[in-house]
Amino acid sequence: MPKKYETPLLDELEKGPFPSFVTEIKKAAARSDMAADELGQLEKSYRDKRGYWKHGGIVGVRGYGSGVIGRYSSLPDEFPNVANFHTVRINSISGFFYTSKFLNEMCDIWDKYGSGLTNLHGSTGDLVLLGTNTENLEPIFAEFSSRGWDLGGSGSALRTPSCCVGPARCEWANIDTLDITYSITQEWQDEMHRPAFPYKFKFKTAGCAVDCIASIARADCSIIGTWKGNIAVDQAEVANYAKKGMNIQEEIVNMCPSKCMSYDGKELKINDADCIRCMHCIAKMTKALKPTGEKGATILIGSKAPFVIGATLSWVIVPFIKMEPPYDEFKDLIRKMWEFWDEYGKNRERIGELIIRKGMREFLEFIGVEPQPQQIKEPRRDPFFFWTEADLQK
Amino acid sequence: MALPQRKTDIGPPHYKDFLPPVIQKNYGNWKYHEIINPGVMVHVSNSGDKIWSVRVASPRLLSTDTIRDMSAIAEKYCGGYIRFTTRNNVEFLVSDEKNLEPLQKELKDKKYMVGGIGNMISNIVHTQGWIHCHSAASDASGIVKVLMDEFADYFTTKTLPNKVRMAVACCVNMCGAVHCSDIAVVAIHRKVPTIDHDKVKNMCEVPSTIGACPTGAISPEPSKKSVKINADKCMYCGNCFTVCPPIEIHDPEYDGVAIVVGGKVGNLRSNPKFSKLAIPFIKNNPPRWPEVTAAVRKILDAYVADAKKHERVGEWIERIGWEKFFKVTGLPFTFQHIDDFVIARETFRTAATFKW
Amino acid sequence: MEKEEVKKKIYELVEKSTGKKKLKSSDIQKTISAEAGISRDEVKDALRDLIDEGKLIYTYFGGSFVEIPPK
User: Fold this and answer.
1) Interchain CB contact of C54 with B (< 8 Å)
2) pLDDT in tens, A169-194
3) CB contact under 8 A, A59 and C26
4) Which of A125, A119, A292 is nearest to A205 (CA)?
5) Å from B165 to nearest chain C CA?
6) Fewer CB atoms near the end CB (10 Å): N or C, chain B?
7) What is the CATH class of A8-146?
8) 8 Å CB contact of A142 and B237
9) Is the peptide bond before A55 cis (omega within 30 degrees of 0)?
10) What's the order of all strands across the beta sheet hosting A127-132?
11) A231-291 maps to CATH 3.30.70.20
12) What is the C-alpha to C-alpha distance for residues C8 and C13, in angstroms, rounded to an integer?
């Protein structure tokens, strides 16, 4: 029987309508010594208002430098069952689709070798197995990999790529987000498991500019689906939206950021040449409006959380690229970017930070992309620009 | 017992093996979707086929018991097919309409919280906090729990002018989309870290420790084979601690949370935006952080009262102006609100136009 | 160059660096390929062998490094 801890503070978090993580930990703690000590240590954190975890060091499965995150209690004498309590990242399925068969198998393995606690999913999109001892790592890897499941990324490596639900269940997807994610994950297994980058690298793929996977805020490489043709309008469906109470002038036309729409009470007109494809009208009138013509993606680079130079959003590098299997043009572009990063990047420097440090020109020239106004909000306002010898000869 | 033969570099299984037959058949051929109620939406294909998704809340941290229970429900009503959303909700994928009502009934009977679809407060994206993170300045799951309890009706029944995307990060590393959320809580430190020089000598690399500091506050201390910190430059981010654990940043008395608002990631109507500081500090008050829920309530109520239909929090604030935001919310404006990091001057008001 | 020889060079480089500077995989690849006049991929391949054999391991200290496992 696992040790039973008194948890008066955490018990307060079992009250209320939202499902309680404390209840989840208690369920696992009823049979797992590890989960029990996790609960005990967490109660102490709530009492002392501080965490008690240490990180880093030597941990992993043989041959890999990624996929296991070392975690150690700073109170090993008090909570011996979480003295080492590592995270295992399992590479999730594109679009986060699962079957009960897999989930049950996963639970069987995890109850045998781990705490019984999980995150579905971690922030990057891994299936996170939350907490096990060092000696269980190899058995866990053998059990999962023999069933066709691999570890995800961690450390200075390609992180587990993730995507929105895409064409599997969304009418707005301009690109096959699930297939792109699967393809790049398989293509770059070595980059994921054997860290050789200056720092982490994340791909996130969104089917359209609604960006349900937050790619523009959270991926070194944001792949956002878009189109080049017109928006087809079904006027009968427009009339249906109006009949059901939508104020098309107020809610659609007036909210269009490029002011490219008009509505006379009968017909909705779009000046497609001025459309910037923000998705507002399409998202609100999904039955009436549909993008047509050539589909592809905008490739943006560089978003990340605040460290070290402040948070960044990804910015446009390639305004439009076709995204069709086997995605060779895209993959070649990425390889060039990684070459640039490998050549000039410092330890713990993300690719976006490097581009800011070295300048967009060096980056674009290195990867062979022309300067285009779609890459910027506005041209520079300072007069301090460089001329190369070649520029002078032009 | 012998272990099965391990394999390396196989990657994840192919997603096609995890898609319900109706999705496999209509992959890339969806025509439109409709939200039937906050817990149910239906996607309709050009072929006329339909799939219903029933969404329930999840604390993200799940025990195997709960996963097994969800699996059993999926087997009973969904042919075993289930998915998770990018905000860690759970979606039961129903191919047969007659299973829709009994599924919802069973979910409600089992106290699952059904909802979150449409202009609601969906699940709160968050980080590990005291549960499993070395650099947490607060817990994340606890704050998520009390906020979602407070705003539960916005998940299950009550709609908003638009979606309100919330996030909680347990330190300024922000493993989660805190920097681009409508309303987000981020835990912060407020004191210069202390250095255990003997341990630094053995555990840390001086150049990478210096390089980790965003403000250049760290310099070598050769006599101790360690580093020193310029207190005037340090803004307590804790990045040095991540690279060099003997630099201790935790301080239970002074750690707490800030609240940021107005971010978004979607491109609809207006460009993606960063979240901006609304409240610089609220002390950690576990287990239920009442001051945090009250502060978020204040901001959310002001948004609900004043925003136009389809306006996100950030779009509402940009329309009324930040000076008006502080007025209508009653939040005090302080020195901490004025940026003094690398992009400060971009945020100064370079016009004579503003509201009283 | 024979793979065993590349492996020896890599191990010596890591050994020499221990306690002074932690090496990243890319540091090793750059240094050895320049010193020995061989391709990055050859170094990478040899390094992978050393890791698979457990003679070297990956560690994490705010970034991923290659080190000699503790005795």
Assistant:
1) no
2) 999 999 999 999 999 999 999 999 99
3) no
4) A125
5) 30
6) N
7) alpha beta
8) no
9) no
10) A68-69, A86-90, A127-132, A117-120, B61-63
11) yes
12) 9
